Amino acid sequence: MACRDIPKAYTAADEIRQKTGNGNIVVKKLDLASLKSVRELAKYVQENEKRLDVLINNAGIMMCPKWKTEDGFEMQFGVNHLGPFLLTNCLLDLLKKSAPSRVVVVSSVAHVTGSIHFDDINLDRNYDNLVSYRQSKLANILFARELAARLQGTGVTVYSLHPGFIRTELVRHLFPQWAWWKKMLASVAMMIVKSPWEGAQTTIYCAVEESLANESGLYYRQVNVCGDNGNFQTRCIFIRGGTAHKIHGSVRFTVSWYMFIVTRLLHPATLLHFFFLFTTRGVNNNRFVSMHRSNSRRSD
Q1: Least buried of 169, 186, 219, 291, by fewest C-beta within 10 Å?
Q2: Where are the transmembrane segments (predicted)?
């Protein structure tokens, strides 16, 4: 277990030992915001482990303020992509030696609206924490696809996935930015999203499911591979091949509707408006629609 918060890591390790009876658990420090820390962990693994059957790049950060990593990179791009990228590449020889082995990259559905800003990778000119998060998650997908292509024939397979919306501390940086009523709605929403146990299932599926042994470079969601038939949850047309223009053109409509549901219909402002609509008698529907549009613009 490679973790940044060592006390929490030891607590989790003890719980695993108690519930599984497996005492063979090692906790090591890893700060993905430090490339030095990444190299130190990779060196430890290389020197102390004979095999590496599965590498799961799970850690991440979401929509934080404009912070920099120890090496001067934008924090979300550094932690979500550059750190796992370096760690994976440092451990490739051991993964190949251990084949059949797997690399699992935890991405996000946010990648569907992401872009890589090659001319301003740190977003110094116009920082936006959501744009940054989307960029880092798209980088995860691109990395997984390219790594899979380069590792063909080695016995190392690669998987990327969206774990779902999970009740964790990942959204902790959003709360200070929200008004009180958004915090209240978000607190209610957190009670109906996936638990950490539920959110881990797609990751576990990619790590151990035997039927996936001959698949590599694909994108998974809800404990299944996303199809390439144009349904709303897929970007596998992209994962399976094709140019960026074809990717965006083929799934733009369905992805747009999905993102509309996630970012607009489930937006705290929208939920609050529906609350007033169904709890207030005699509301004029036309007036409600007008109010919703006006307030949505302000909340953006």
Answers
A1: 169
A2: 257-278
Q: Is the pTM of this model over 0.85?
A: no
120, two tokens: 């301003």
Domain spans, the chain: 2-252, 267-300
Report, as residue numbers or ranges, the catalytic residues: 133
Joined tokens for residue 39: 């190299």
51 CB burial (10 A radius; 0-12, 13-18, 19+): exposed
Contact (CB, 8 A) for 49 and 160: no
Which option is the CATH number for 2-252: 3.30.1520.10, 3.40.50.720, 3.40.1700.10, 3.40.50.700?
3.40.50.720
Q: Are 41 and 30 in contact (CB under 8 A)?
A: yes
Q: Are 83 and 33 in contact (CB under 8 A)?
A: yes
- Provide the sign of the torsion angle of the four alpha carbons 131, 119, 244, 139, taken in this order: negative
Residues in CB range of 71: below 8 A, 6 or more apart: 34, 35, 78
Q: What is the pLDDT of residues 20-77, one digit of tens each?
A: 999 999 999 999 999 999 999 999 999 999 999 999 999 888 878 899 999 999 999 9
DSSP character for 227? Answer: P
